[in-house]
Amino acid sequence: MAEDRRLKLMGYEVYRFGGCEFVDVALESWAIGKREQETVGEFFDRLLKKHRAL
User: Which end of the chain offers a freer environment for a tag, N or C, measured as fewer CB atoms within 10 Å?
Assistant: First the structure.
């Protein structure tokens, strides 16, 4: 949390993902499941639209 505050004070936006959002992860290969891929993909789609980068 301290790092979030520091970054926010520097003007950065901080976005967090909870551990429960990434339950289907193969740690050996760093592969994530379909639902996790959709979660991350939807987040970046919305983030890019917010900043008019799409």
Answer: N
